[in-house]
Write a structure and sequence with these properties.
The protein has helices at residues 20-36, 40-49, 101-109, 137-140, and strands spanning 11-14, 73-75, 81-89, 119-130, 144-147, 153-158, 166-171, 176-179. With 180 residues, it is an alpha+beta fold. The strands form three sheets. It has a three-stranded antiparallel sheet with strand order 1-8-5, with no helix packed on it. The protein has a three-stranded antiparallel sheet with strand order 2-3-4, covered by helices on one side. Strand 2 and strand 3 form a beta hairpin. The protein starts with 10 loop residues before the first strand and ends with a strand. The model has no long low-confidence stretch (mean pLDDT 89).
């Protein structure tokens, strides 16, 4: 995909960075951490009502429970994220918990422009969305490395000083982007 000239200097996109197996490891690890933040009642309900994970479906989407088994927040404090779960991750699961995760994380972190990394997990519901916004650089830093896992989403960007300069990018599962 060719990036528009006003985006290209600040944006790098890898549409097929992670294999299905690597995506599954990352998603297992992310869901393990996010699910641990849910209430005991929600975790029990999800365990009891979740349909069995398909052994024939190779997509990572199979790893998600149905939306109704998660406690999604309706809206974020700044109003730009709707129907989501999130957390700041302080530590990924160990290889003992998710065998093979370390090399996948090493590949991911090798893309980071600096070693000063804050890891933020965001799980959008099927109908969840992130509205256009400008990130607070003092809170999020000078770059964002995004990984898309599950259903394809669309990233929409607009120039800060000229909203007519729009850019849309489909983010398939396994894709990674770097925005500086």
């Amino acid at each position: 995909m060719r990036l528009p000239p006003h985006i290209a200097p600040f944006f790098t996109f890898w549409p097929t960075y992670f294999s299905i197996h690597e995506q599954s490891l990352l998603l297992d690890a992310a869901l393990l951490r996010l699910d641990a933040m849910d209430s005991v009642k929600t975790r029990r309900r999800r365990t009891k009502l979740r349909p069995p994970v398909s052994k024939t479906d190779s997509s990572v989407q199979r790893l998600f429970a149905p939306d109704q088994l998660y406690d999604f927040h309706e809206g974020h404090f700044d109003g730009v994220i709707h129907h989501y779960r999130e957390m700041h991750l302080t530590a990924w699961p160990t290889d003992a918990q998710i065998p093979g995760l370390s090399p996948v994380l090493a590949r991911l972190y090798a893309l980071c422009p600096t070693k000063d990394v804050q890891t933020h997990l965001l799980h959008l519901a099927s109908h969840g969305e992130i509205l256009p916004h400008v990130d607070n650089l003092s809170a999020s830093g000078s770059w964002i490395l995004g990984v898309s896992l599950g259903d394809q989403r669309t990233l929409r960007m607009a120039a800060v000083h000229d909203k007519s300069q729009l850019f849309e990018l489909p983010l398939p599962s396994g894709s990674v982007y770097l925005q500086k």
